[in-house]
Amino acid sequence: MTAKEIAGIDGSTEIKTLIETLHGAEQRLAELTAGEVDAVVSRQGRTMLLRLAQIQLRDSDAVKQAAILDALPAHVALLDGQGRIVSVNQQWRRSYGSNAVVGVGCAVGSNYPEESRQLRVLNHQRRAESQPVFVRYWTGNSRASP
Amino acid sequence: MRKPRAQSFKFRLYVADRTPNSALAMANLTALCRTHLPGRHEIEIVDVLRKPERAIADGVFMTPALVKITPSPIIRLTGTLTRTQATLQALGLETPSA
């Protein structure tokens, strides 16, 4: 079974044309408004953020999130839905290096549950030093020292 | 004879969340009002991502967009309002220089 069949989407010429039209329309809109427009609203009330605005908003959110996490004195790792570490805060990097917990093997990209045993050991050591490792889940749940 | 009271201006600024152009328009409008309309202006901010129906009702189809509600006539401007002189002229706050 091909990807086309699974998705139930016909990769027809019409779709390709629509994609080109979409990109072309956005580019032309940016040209006509000197790049000063962020979003457009259709007559039906559907609002669409233009691509550049989406990128800027996403980057701005990322910077804000990083600033908040970096301001925390605790060691913080963000996990995705699969338990992989997607980023760590400044305190974490300062203590364990730019991208990894040296000696424990729990780095950005690694699977947290698989590393939990080692991390428990680390947490135990951290607790002993009054520096607990806090882990905040990407989904919004949070807890200290699993 | 009593001096006629200065007109009060009511603006509605349509933005899209905290996107850079919207934030810039907000800052420019605030600065413009502080300088040229101190104590006689009112600004309402409307986020089209939350209330698109209000944009449609005001004939706004792009953001950032400014609508001058009062005094009449209603004027719509699209963009970041960075060109202060042009904005003032469009709003009738300054006559074009000869």
Short description:
Chain A is of the alpha+beta class and 146 residues long. Chain A is built from five helices and eight strands. The model of chain A is unreliable at 101-105, 130-134 and 136-146 (pLDDT under 50).
Describe the structure in your own words:
The complex is a heterodimer of chains A (146) and B (98). Chain A is α+β, with helices and mostly antiparallel strands and 146 residues long. In chain A, 48% of the residues lie in helices and 18% in strands. Chain A starts with a helix and ends with a strand. The model of chain A is unreliable at 101-105, 130-134 and 136-146 (pLDDT under 50). The longest helix of chain A is centred in the middle third of the chain and has 21 residues, at 51-71. In chain A, the strands form 3 sheets. Chain A has a 4-stranded mixed β-sheet with strand order 4-3-7-8. Chain A has 2 domains: 12-71, no CATH class; 73-144, no CATH class. By secondary structure, chain B is of the alpha+beta class. Chain B has a single domain (9-81), classed as Glutaredoxin (3-Layer(aba) Sandwich), CATH 3.40.30.10. Chain B has 3 helices and 5 strands. Chain B has helices at 20-36, 52-57, 84-90; strands at residues 9-15, 41-47, 62-63, 65-70, 75-78. A 4-stranded mixed β-sheet of chain B has the order 2-1-4-5. The termini of chain B are far apart. The model of chain B has no long low-confidence stretch (mean pLDDT 90). Strand 1 of chain A pairs antiparallel with strand 3 of chain B, so a sheet runs across the interface.
List the SSEs and their pairings.
The complex is a heterodimer of chains A (146) and B (98).
Chain A: H1 3-7, H2 13-32, E1 39-41, E2 47-49, H3 51-71, E3 75-79, E4 85-88, H4 90-96, E5 100-101, E6 106-107, H5 112-128, E7 133-137, E8 142-144
Parallel strand pairs in A: 3-7
Antiparallel strand pairs in A: 1-2, 3-4, 5-6, 7-8
Chain B: E1 9-15, H1 20-36, E2 41-47, H2 52-57, E3 62-63, E4 65-70, E5 75-78, H3 84-90
